[in-house]
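# step 3/5: fold
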Amino acid sequence: MRKGISPLIAVIMLIAFTMIVAGILAGWATQFVTQSRAELQFCARAQLLIQRAYFDDTTNQTTIALFNTGDVPLEGFAVRLTYQNETITSTKFEDLNISYQDIKTVTLDSDDTLKQIVVQSLECRGAQDMVGRYDIQGLGFRAY
Protein backbone atom coordinates (compact mmCIF):
# COMPACT_ATOMS: atom_id res chain seq x y z
CA MET A 1 0.00 0.00 0.00
CA ARG A 2 1.26 3.49 -0.92
CA LYS A 3 1.22 6.35 1.47
CA GLY A 4 1.25 10.06 0.68
CA ILE A 5 3.18 12.66 2.60
CA SER A 6 1.86 13.53 5.97
CA PRO A 7 -0.45 16.56 6.21
CA LEU A 8 2.05 18.29 8.50
CA ILE A 9 4.88 18.00 5.94
CA ALA A 10 2.52 19.16 3.18
CA VAL A 11 1.57 22.27 5.16
CA ILE A 12 5.23 23.05 5.93
CA MET A 13 6.16 22.69 2.23
CA LEU A 14 3.25 24.90 1.18
CA ILE A 15 4.26 27.60 3.68
CA ALA A 16 7.91 27.38 2.56
CA PHE A 17 6.93 27.69 -1.11
CA THR A 18 4.69 30.68 -0.32
CA MET A 19 7.49 32.40 1.61
CA ILE A 20 9.96 31.88 -1.25
CA VAL A 21 7.53 33.37 -3.80
CA ALA A 22 6.74 36.27 -1.43
CA GLY A 23 10.48 36.96 -0.99
CA ILE A 24 11.06 37.05 -4.74
CA LEU A 25 8.08 39.36 -5.30
CA ALA A 26 9.12 41.66 -2.45
CA GLY A 27 12.62 42.01 -3.91
CA TRP A 28 11.24 42.80 -7.37
CA ALA A 29 8.65 45.26 -6.00
CA THR A 30 11.29 47.10 -3.96
CA GLN A 31 13.58 47.46 -6.98
CA PHE A 32 10.68 48.54 -9.22
CA VAL A 33 9.46 51.21 -6.79
CA THR A 34 12.98 52.54 -6.20
CA GLN A 35 13.66 52.81 -9.94
CA SER A 36 10.27 54.40 -10.67
CA ARG A 37 10.74 56.93 -7.89
CA ALA A 38 14.18 57.92 -9.20
CA GLU A 39 12.77 58.40 -12.71
CA LEU A 40 9.89 60.50 -11.40
CA GLN A 41 12.19 62.68 -9.33
CA PHE A 42 14.48 63.18 -12.35
CA CYS A 43 11.65 63.99 -14.76
CA ALA A 44 9.94 66.33 -12.29
CA ARG A 45 12.94 68.63 -12.77
CA ALA A 46 12.91 68.43 -16.60
CA GLN A 47 11.49 71.24 -18.72
CA LEU A 48 11.74 72.04 -22.40
CA LEU A 49 10.96 75.24 -24.29
CA ILE A 50 10.86 75.95 -28.02
CA GLN A 51 12.67 79.24 -27.81
CA ARG A 52 12.41 80.00 -31.52
CA ALA A 53 11.07 78.40 -34.69
CA TYR A 54 11.99 79.77 -38.10
CA PHE A 55 10.75 78.70 -41.54
CA ASP A 56 13.05 79.45 -44.48
CA ASP A 57 11.00 79.57 -47.69
CA THR A 58 14.10 79.42 -49.92
CA THR A 59 15.18 76.02 -48.55
CA ASN A 60 11.77 74.81 -47.32
CA GLN A 61 13.27 74.00 -43.94
CA THR A 62 12.24 74.83 -40.41
CA THR A 63 14.87 75.43 -37.74
CA ILE A 64 13.83 74.98 -34.12
CA ALA A 65 15.84 76.27 -31.15
CA LEU A 66 15.26 74.02 -28.12
CA PHE A 67 16.04 75.41 -24.68
CA ASN A 68 16.37 73.05 -21.73
CA THR A 69 14.91 75.24 -18.98
CA GLY A 70 14.96 72.47 -16.39
CA ASP A 71 17.85 71.59 -14.13
CA VAL A 72 18.63 68.12 -15.52
CA PRO A 73 20.18 67.17 -18.88
CA LEU A 74 17.85 65.67 -21.49
CA GLU A 75 18.66 63.08 -24.13
CA GLY A 76 16.62 62.19 -27.20
CA PHE A 77 13.72 64.13 -28.69
CA ALA A 78 10.76 63.60 -30.98
CA VAL A 79 9.56 66.42 -33.24
CA ARG A 80 6.08 66.29 -34.75
CA LEU A 81 5.10 68.66 -37.56
CA THR A 82 1.41 69.09 -38.36
CA TYR A 83 0.31 70.66 -41.63
CA GLN A 84 -2.89 72.41 -42.73
CA ASN A 85 -4.27 69.25 -44.35
CA GLU A 86 -3.73 67.45 -40.98
CA THR A 87 -0.77 65.48 -42.37
CA ILE A 88 1.68 64.72 -39.57
CA THR A 89 5.38 63.93 -39.88
CA SER A 90 7.48 62.76 -36.95
CA THR A 91 11.23 62.77 -36.62
CA LYS A 92 13.28 61.39 -33.75
CA PHE A 93 16.59 62.87 -32.68
CA GLU A 94 17.75 60.06 -30.38
CA ASP A 95 21.37 61.27 -30.22
CA LEU A 96 20.51 64.89 -29.40
CA ASN A 97 21.60 65.84 -25.87
CA ILE A 98 20.80 69.17 -24.28
CA SER A 99 22.51 70.03 -21.02
CA TYR A 100 20.47 71.92 -18.49
CA GLN A 101 20.15 75.63 -19.29
CA ASP A 102 21.55 74.96 -22.80
CA ILE A 103 20.13 75.59 -26.29
CA LYS A 104 20.42 73.31 -29.34
CA THR A 105 18.90 73.66 -32.79
CA VAL A 106 17.41 71.10 -35.15
CA THR A 107 16.50 71.63 -38.79
CA LEU A 108 13.76 69.74 -40.61
CA ASP A 109 12.35 69.73 -44.12
CA SER A 110 8.88 71.29 -44.20
CA ASP A 111 6.75 73.60 -46.29
CA ASP A 112 4.75 76.80 -45.86
CA THR A 113 1.58 74.91 -44.91
CA LEU A 114 3.12 74.10 -41.53
CA LYS A 115 0.49 74.52 -38.84
CA GLN A 116 2.06 73.31 -35.58
CA ILE A 117 5.31 72.01 -34.10
CA VAL A 118 5.43 69.76 -31.03
CA VAL A 119 8.73 68.73 -29.43
CA GLN A 120 8.86 66.11 -26.69
CA SER A 121 11.70 64.55 -24.74
CA LEU A 122 11.98 60.79 -25.26
CA GLU A 123 13.47 60.48 -21.79
CA CYS A 124 10.82 62.47 -19.89
CA ARG A 125 7.53 62.63 -21.77
CA GLY A 126 6.33 65.56 -19.66
CA ALA A 127 9.16 67.75 -20.97
CA GLN A 128 7.54 69.09 -24.12
CA ASP A 129 6.49 72.29 -25.85
CA MET A 130 4.39 73.33 -28.81
CA VAL A 131 4.24 76.32 -31.13
CA GLY A 132 1.54 77.21 -33.60
CA ARG A 133 1.78 78.72 -37.07
CA TYR A 134 1.68 82.33 -35.84
CA ASP A 135 4.67 81.73 -33.56
CA ILE A 136 6.83 80.36 -36.37
CA GLN A 137 8.95 83.15 -37.77
CA GLY A 138 8.78 83.26 -41.56
CA LEU A 139 5.20 81.99 -41.59
CA GLY A 140 3.55 84.31 -39.13
CA PHE A 141 0.43 85.84 -40.57
CA ARG A 142 0.55 84.28 -44.04
CA ALA A 143 -2.86 83.26 -45.30
CA TYR A 144 -3.55 79.54 -45.48
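# step 4/5: annotate
The chain has a mean pLDDT of 88.
# step 5/5: archive (pending)
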